[in-house]
Amino acid sequence: MIETARDVIYTLSPDGIITSLNPIFEKLTGWNRDEWLGQHFAPLVHEDDLIVAAEILTKVLQGDNPTIFELRIKTKENGFMIGEFITTPRYQGGQIIGALGIARDITARKIAEQRLRESEHQLATAQQIARIGSWEWDISSNTVHWSDELYKIYGLQPGQTTATYESYIERVHPDDRSIVRRNVERALQEKRSYRSEYRIVHPDGTVRTVEGRGEVVVDEKDSIIKLRGTCQDITEHKLADEAVRSLAKRVVEAQENERRRIARDLHDNICQRLSAVKLHLSALETGIRNKQSKNYVQIQNLKRQVGRTIKEVRGISIELRPTTLDDLGLPVALQLLCREFEKTFSIAIQCSIDGVVKEMFDVHQETALYRIAQEGLMNIAKHAQAKKVTLSLASQPSSISMMIQDNGKGFDQSKLSSRKDGSGFGLMNIKERALLLGGSFKISSEKNRGTTLNLEIPILAKAL
């Protein structure tokens, strides 16, 4: 297994001398193993990473099992590969005689992540120039005045056409005219301001999106004398918003794909290796006749430790990407999530799945809805102090609705953005996922009267 492994497997002596390397080291770095066997590891490591590497080795030699860490390793072509490392103490006769480590080449992944961060930064710093025109409609004389910029927004030259209410309506996209007329009529009837988004059509057929605002002007007798307002071309802003949503969706999908990959590697690779180690320990245990000997006791302890590690790794794998979601679909995965939530946190939960079948969901919808439920339940466990929770999933003709309700302590919604206990961040994640699905998200809460989350998303065609 070591000779054919795709990851570098190595051992170090207590003073940092490389005592073994498997063949993949040569392919990933270009070095010949013989050039480094018997040499100190430090010259292989990027100088900026040496302190971290030394600290990790010190901890390992003290019996610790550090978390996964990253180091840059020099290649023979004067470059670097980025390695993701796992290391553990190496024992012999109950004594630590060095370190055993595994390094995975994640250079390509890190480059892709860097490019993605650069793309996100460029998108976040891009600015759109606002184009705003003004207008005024004198009701008594039925005359309309447009600013020069407003003519330009409508694709016209200033003064090219007579500015009237009807000429304004003619420039509105046919599908949006009824909405615009209704807003103006309601403003005049109720003497109130309005704000709406709609599309306009240039003389050459170009369609633009604008935001219109209007307000009523009254005289001392409260009679309407004018209607005035502004019109802003927000086409670029709309395109930027769509780009942000598209990018965010790709980021979420990339995260889920990476979660799926890591979960699969943990289950199919690490767990299998640990299981093989456990089997070998069992074989060694069988060969010891003296059941009271120190070696027999140590092997039993190692078997228990390996068993616990296997269980923890499987738990992490399931947390990263539940296999039930891929194999059995969202309804079953949610029911199992609720069962595990009730068992873990001792909070009674009622899970209701009404008329929802696996075939209704696009894979990205399934994942997003599962993560929303996961985030919502975790928020309740951390902050709500609830005794009872209800999670329901129901299908409508063209949408899916999810509700998560608890009878906990609730909160003041007006202070949500300033909360420092982390619950606001969880709700923000839920809202962002809902928006990415093209859905709506509502939350209602009162102190000591619980909290209710309502989500509704359109049904997408299931990906084939």
Task: Provide a descriptive summary of the structure in words.
This protein is α+β, with helices and mostly antiparallel strands and 464 residues long. It folds into four domains: 8-110, 2-Layer Sandwich (Beta-Lactamase), CATH 3.30.450.20; 131-233, Beta-Lactamase, CATH 3.30.450.20; 240-320; 323-458, Heat Shock Protein 90 (2-Layer Sandwich). It is built from twelve helices and 15 strands. The chain has helices at residues 24-29, 50-61, 107-125, 148-153, 165-171, 177-190, 235-286, 294-320, 323-327, 330-345, 363-384, 423-436; strands at 8-12, 18-21, 69-74, 80-92, 95-105, 131-138, 143-146, 194-201, 207-218, 224-233, 348-354, 388-395, 399-406, 440-445, 451-458. The strands form three sheets. The chain has a five-stranded antiparallel beta sheet with strand order 2-1-5-4-3, sandwiched between helices. Strand 6 (131-138) and strand 7 (143-146) form a beta hairpin. The longest helix is centred in the middle third of the chain and has 52 residues, at 235-286. It is elongated. It starts with 7 loop residues before the first strand and ends in a 6-residue tail after the last strand. 19% of the residues are buried. Residues 123-130 have low confidence and may be disordered.
Task: Summarize this structure briefly.
The protein contains twelve helices and 15 strands.
Rounded mean pLDDT score: 81
The CATH H-level homologous superfamily of the largest domain: Histidine kinase-like ATPase, C-terminal domain
Task: Look at the helices and sheets and give the structural class.
Answer: alpha+beta
What is the strand content?
25-35%
The stretches of 5 or more residues where confidence is low (pLDDT under 50) are 123-130
Strand order of the largest sheet: 2-1-5-4-3
Look at the structure and give the CATH class of the largest domain. Alpha Beta
How would a textbook summarize the main sheet?
Answer: 5 strands, antiparallel
Count of helical segments?
Answer: 12
Give the CATH architecture of the largest domain: 2-Layer Sandwich
CATH topology value of the largest domain = Heat Shock Protein 90
